[in-house]
Design a protein that fits this description.
single chain; Thrombin, subunit H; globular; two-stranded antiparallel ribbon; 112 residues; mainly beta
Length: 112
C-alpha cells in the first residue's frame, strides 16, 4: 500500500420537492490512501450486481458507505482508472501499526 492524496465525491440524500426528486448537493472529501483492484472471486449480495467490477480502497479516515436498507443513503463515489465506483462495504482496522479503513467499492459507471 503506497499512500496517495485521493478524494471521493459525497452526495447528500435526495429529496422530494413539489413531487420532483431532487438530487442532493455534492462535496469533495479528501483522504490519504490507496486503491487496488478487488479479487475477482468476490460476489455481490445485491440482486443484479453480481457480475460488476469491484475495487478495494484503503483510507486514513472514515468514508460514507451506501445502504440497502435506506435507499436515500448514498455511498461515496470514487473514480478509479476513469470509472465511477460506489463504496458498499467498510472494514475498519483500528489495531496494529497503522489504523486505517478498508472499503469495497462496486462499479456504477464505466468508461468506454
Amino acid at each position: 500500500m503506497f499512500p496517495k492524496n485521493l478524494s471521493v465525491t459525497r452526495q447528500t440524500a435526495d429529496n422530494w420537492v413539489n413531487g420532483q426528486l431532487t438530487a442532493g448537493a455534492t462535496t469533495t472529501v479528501p483522504f490519504i490512501g490507496d486503491a487496488q483492484p478487488a479479487n475477482s472471486d468476490l460476489v455481490s449480495l445485491q440482486i443484479g450486481r453480481m457480475g460488476v467490477g469491484k475495487t478495494r480502497i484503503f483510507s486514513d479516515r472514515k468514508l460514507q458507505v451506501g445502504s440497502n436498507v435506506d435507499p436515500k443513503a448514498n455511498g461515496d463515489i470514487f473514480v478509479y482508472e476513469g470509472s465511477k465506483y460506489e463504496l458498499i462495504q467498510e472494514n475498519p482496522f483500528e489495531v496494529g501499526l497503522i489504523p486505517h479503513f478498508e472499503y469495497l467499492a462496486e462499479l456504477r459507471e464505466a468508461t468506454a
